[in-house]
Each structure stands twice: as C-alpha cells, then as structure tokens.
C-alpha cells in the first residue's frame, strides 16, 4: 500500500488521493468503492474497479475498512493554564491515533475559561500551532457573562456549556436553573445551543459524602436522582424558552422516558453518552481505583444495558468521549480516596475500539457505531462537511481493522498522563491511519485547522 503523498501532484493524476477497497463506509453502508480526493475534499465516489488515478493511491486489503473520521464534541484539552493535565499537542495526537479527525474543546479547565471573546482568542492562539486534527471550541455560560454570549457566537463557538452544580474548578461557576433559563432565552434569539452538565446540586448536597476508598460510597454520593431532577429542569426551561438544549454525558437510564416524552412534545433536545458508561460497570470497580472516578459516575450493569437500548432506539443521539484528564497526583492514586481524586476518564484515543468491542457482543454493526461517533456528533455541532464519506465532505477518514485486537498499554497512549481505567483491557479493532482533509497525520507536523461555527 502506498500512503505517503508526493510533494507535488503528477500532471497526469486526476486526483490528489485515491482510496479503493472492498470495505468503504459510505451512506450506502460498507461497500466496494473508489474514493477520489482533490484539495482536501471528496470529489468522487465510484464503483470498485473504475481504476481512478491519483498522485497517491491507497489499496485497502480485505481486513481494512475506510471509515469517516470520528467527531468528538466533548473534549477537555485544558490549555492554556492546565497544560500539565493535557494540551493541544498531546490531545490531538491521541485523537488522531483513535481515528478522531475533529474535536470540539470544552470551555473550562483552561485558564482563562472560554467565557469571553478575549479568552477565546487566547485559546485559539494556544491551539493553532499544535493541532494535528481540526479543532473547534465551545463557549461557556457562567453567572454574569450573558452580555458576552452573542459576541462569542459571532466569533464562531459552536454553542455554550453550563453546569447546574459546582464545575470542579472555581473559575467556571455554575448557573442556577433560573439563570440557565435566562441564558437559554438569549441563545434562542440567535439559535445557538445550550449544552448542560445536568446534575442537581441540592440532591448531591443531601447525598452521602464521597470519602475513602469505597466505590459504592462514591456512587451513592452522585445518585441517579440528581441527574433526573436536573434533566427535568433542562427539559422544562428549553420548553419554555424554545431554545435548543443538549444533555451531556448521560449516565442515568432513569431519564430516558422523560427525554423521549419531551421530544414527542417538540422540545428541542439532544443527548449524548460516553464510552465509560457503555463499557464499565460499578460492580466491577475495585475499591481505591480512582482512575474510574468520573461525574456523573459509572453505574450498575442493568443501567448500562438500558443506555445501550436508548442508543439503539434513538433516544440517545451520539457517543463522545468526555475526555477529562488530569495529572496522576490529582487522581490520588496513592491513597485511592474517591472524595479527593479528580473526576474524569481519559479515553480520547480509545473510544472507537471500546464501543466496537461492546457493540459486537450485542450484534450492532460497525456502520451504526461509526454513525453514533461521527455523523451524529457532527450534526449536533452543525457541521455539514464532517462525519461522512460523501461528495463535498472534507476528506477526513481513518483506516480501521475491526477484526484485529489490541491490549491497552497506558504507557503507549498519546495522552499526556499515563492513567486510564482501561489499562490492560483487551479490545477489538485497531486504527492504523488517520487522514485529515486528504493529508495523512504523521505525528511530526501539525496541519489541523481551527474551526468556526458555520464553516465546517
């Protein structure tokens, strides 16, 4: 297989790049096709055997599938300000290694948080020279910045994140439900999106405190009821304002019926969940294993199966990582105290293989998995040229071997800090190459683009 682009196209070449094989994932499913790329855009999709010519040609073998690049709309990159947790260099390398070609960075855990136009400019300046894939940005909705929301929108953020309880960092304070409603009404006036960390602070204040090494105690400290109450608030405030709302990292399956009901009523609501809620089980988390701590928490086996059902029936729209890394020290590995440890799972490089491993067990085809992780997140963010192998789309794709296996070695991941609940886990599927706008990611020269709403 030839996969290194020539420095200059040959005059006789019709395309810059041609990929051909028996297993190309298009809107028609996994089919035999030849894909022609010019100037970073897919301009031809032809039946296999047409012998398209190009400066560079990739001939896939029968073990390889060309899939659209994944779109991860929930990534905490943390730069600037907390780059020791993660940064654009390490995060975008990890993303590319996992087949992710576009990510959208969360507005918190960086300093300053992305709550003003000035802070967005600082974030973009930090990301620009280091992005190996395409990167967009969410804005933040916090008390007192209602007047900044329109300017952030005009400057290209894809929507706005808020919390309904303490965010974990003091510089990104949470909104009350009434404040969220006020900001939703503002966002509705220019058709932006409010994405919500939906856990109710009052319910968590009244729950047992998470302290010590018992996972069961931590789980009790973040009850399903806290999610359910907060999601109900989001639904009603979206109903009253007409705003578009999105529920982040759903972990409580109890909320699925009211989400489905709200949609039937016409509420503009979308929902995501994450690999850790679909692959891990509370019953199997050892005491003191703080690598598993995240908020909302990983719940029980019965809950996990209902989340999978919610995906299959369409109540849950998409799967994204919620990659929320930190230093090993902040995970309090030495003491294993769930009350002290930072809450977040690092999985940016592993998401596709994690979900594919579980999906196979349930008879869910690869086409559906990729749809949940590429087209649907792109749709959420309003990206029309991402997440699909289709004419006119950016030539973002990965070469994936679904029958190949791997054992996770946390020391070999591109994540900045080598800690993950998946260390040593056997997974199905391996990404061997990732291409962004027709250029192969080679991990030596960043060529990612910074994206603005409406331009992707």
From TrEMBL:
<dbReference type="InterPro" id="IPR006680">
    <property type="entry name" value="Amidohydro-rel"/>
</dbReference>
<keyword id="KW-0378">Hydrolase</keyword>
<dbReference type="GO" id="GO:0000256">
    <property type="term" value="P:allantoin catabolic process"/>
</dbReference>
<dbReference type="GO" id="GO:0050897">
    <property type="term" value="F:cobalt ion binding"/>
</dbReference>
<comment type="similarity">
    <text>Belongs to the metallo-dependent hydrolases superfamily. Allantoinase family.</text>
</comment>
<dbReference type="GO" id="GO:0008270">
    <property type="term" value="F:zinc ion binding"/>
</dbReference>
<keyword id="KW-0659">Purine metabolism</keyword>
<dbReference type="InterPro" id="IPR032466">
    <property type="entry name" value="Metal_Hydrolase"/>
</dbReference>
<dbReference type="InterPro" id="IPR050138">
    <property type="entry name" value="DHOase/Allantoinase_Hydrolase"/>
</dbReference>
<dbReference type="GO" id="GO:0005737">
    <property type="term" value="C:cytoplasm"/>
</dbReference>
<dbReference type="InterPro" id="IPR017593">
    <property type="entry name" value="Allantoinase"/>
</dbReference>
<keyword id="KW-0862">Zinc</keyword>
<protein>
    <recommendedName>
        <fullName>allantoinase</fullName>
        <ecNumber>3.5.2.5</ecNumber>
    </recommendedName>
</protein>
<feature type="domain" description="Amidohydrolase-related">
    <location>
        <begin position="65"/>
        <end position="441"/>
    </location>
</feature>
<dbReference type="InterPro" id="IPR011059">
    <property type="entry name" value="Metal-dep_hydrolase_composite"/>
</dbReference>
<dbReference type="GO" id="GO:0004038">
    <property type="term" value="F:allantoinase activity"/>
</dbReference>
<comment type="subunit">
    <text>Homotetramer.</text>
</comment>
<keyword id="KW-0479">Metal-binding</keyword>
<dbReference type="GO" id="GO:0006145">
    <property type="term" value="P:purine nucleobase catabolic process"/>
</dbReference>
<comment type="pathway">
    <text>Nitrogen metabolism; (S)-allantoin degradation; allantoate from (S)-allantoin: step 1/1.</text>
</comment>
<dbReference type="Pfam" id="PF01979">
    <property type="entry name" value="Amidohydro_1"/>
</dbReference>
